[in-house]
Amino acid sequence: MKGYRFLQFNPLAAAKSIFEQMLDIFMQLLTYTNGDAAEALSWMNDLDKQYQLTKPDYGMGDFIDDLKQNGYLNENEQDGSFKITGKSEQTIRKKSLEEIFGKLKKSGKGNHATFKVGQGTELTPNTRPFQFGDLLEQIDFTESIRTAQVNRGVESFSMQEDDLQIRETDFKSQTSTVLMIDISHSMILYGEDRITPAKKVAMALCELIKTKYPKDTIDIVVFGNDAWSIAIKDLPYLQVGPYHTNTVAGLELAMDLLRRRKNHNKQIFMITDGKPTCLKIGNKYYKNSFGLDRKVVNRCINLAAQCKKLHIPITTFMIASDPYLQNFVQEFTEMNHGKAYFASLDKLGSFIFKDFESGKRKTVY
Is the pTM value of this prediction over 0.90? Predict the structure, then answer.
């Protein structure tokens, strides 16, 4: 008689090694130190003194050696300084993805399902009669044979063109996304770190698209007094500056980037914590941090209208809840027919994930 043999569960066998546990902490600290390896290691030394992260047979020196041997850390032989590697940058993105979105498997399709039917790979329960131009692999032979039997009977079975039935498939769309991140000084004011959660969400979204939707495109735009693009690999090093909020420059750059993309489905995600306070007119900056300056606001509203005409929806994630800011976001969103979320920092990732995924169930264009 066959049976099952149960073995005693050993939790230590499935536990992470000391290096893996310390690596998780190190990757988290790198996000807060803007990719500064020396500062992150200094923080780990302080944590080790307080919480005994290391063991008698495995110290911080051993951990640093393992980081270098495993390709996470480079040491400058001349001055002894440390710098993280591309492997560390990718690991930070993966850790952010796991933290915010959970572990997602890579998809070989790299497309998004829509509610429209067409040539795709996901079968639907719907069938329709054959039409000229349909592919052979779309024919549902079981349903076609049944239709032929109904039309001509079993004894004198024959199949003709009008008996053929086509199995519908979900049409697959591709999306181009621009993620705008506010790096004005207010993102670290009032004792609240807002830039680190924004970076984590950006890294997680980038990793999500690279793994699950590899045919999609994503561009990162940061905006303060001006706006510029950054590479995905530079996200861990992103930090705020002594900037005002030139939302107009960010939107103009985002629109320019999307204009170059051939995909019909385009969208803008904007993470910000404040109102637009800056414009660049010629070579000079026009700045006003008090209230809502209509000169600045109207330029933002005009760009929202332009995006609407170009079929580019803007989803604004406002990580501030002041009533007058809500009024501005509402006016901006209504002009674009986009979406707006007043998201707390701990819920920012789930808001963006849900909106990104749900948006793939429909075509924008």
Answer: no
